[in-house]
């Protein structure tokens, strides 16, 4: 194997490793508390694009980032482009970041305009 081929292979492996580390840090639930909380507020910004749609929500406690499921999962819940806009009221149930200084939640259910979207129905705690 030539030096150039070896270098290309190692570069590719390093890039794949970085991608996987980044993906595992972002995805999953390991960063979130097991207990669920509820937030109520006003939507400031909506982002539907991958890797995960999210909403910025102004609450009495400040601005929160509310992450939804992956785009396909979010769409299956019925939440699509145009389902929410800045200024809409929202109620969100989900798991907040373990670092409570970070105002971030992974939503399992949201209600906007009287319509409820079960993002992770199997994770909704009654």
What topology emerges from the helices and strands here?
Elements: H1 3-26, E1 32-47, E2 54-59, E3 62-67, H2 71-76, E4 89-97, E5 104-112, E6 115-118
In short:
The chain is of the alpha+beta class and 126 residues long. The protein is built from two helices and six strands. A hairpin with a 2-residue loop joins strand 2 (54-59) and strand 3.
Polypeptide structure, described:
With 126 residues, the chain is α+β, with helices and mostly antiparallel strands. The protein is built from 2 helices and 6 strands, in the order αβββαβββ. It has helices spanning 3-26, 71-76; strands at residues 32-47, 54-59, 62-67, 89-97, 104-112, 115-118. The chain has a 5-stranded mixed beta barrel. A hairpin with a 6-residue loop joins strand 1 (32-47) and strand 2 (54-59). The protein is globular and about 65 Å long.
């Amino acid at each position: 194997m030539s030096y150039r081929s070896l270098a290309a292979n190692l570069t590719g492996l390093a890039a794949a490793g970085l991608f996987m580390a980044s993906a595992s840090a972002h995805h999953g639930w390991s960063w979130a508390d097991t207990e669920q909380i509820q937030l109520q507020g006003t939507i400031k910004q909506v982002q539907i694009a991958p890797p995960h749609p999210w909403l910025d929500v102004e609450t009495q406690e400040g601005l929160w980032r509310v992450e939804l499921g992956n785009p396909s999962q979010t769409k299956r819940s019925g939440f699509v482009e145009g389902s929410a806009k800045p200024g809409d009221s929202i109620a969100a149930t989900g798991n907040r970041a373990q670092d409570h200084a970070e105002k971030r939640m992974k939503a399992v259910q949201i209600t906007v305009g009287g319509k409820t979207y079960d993002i992770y129905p199997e994770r909704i705690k009654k």
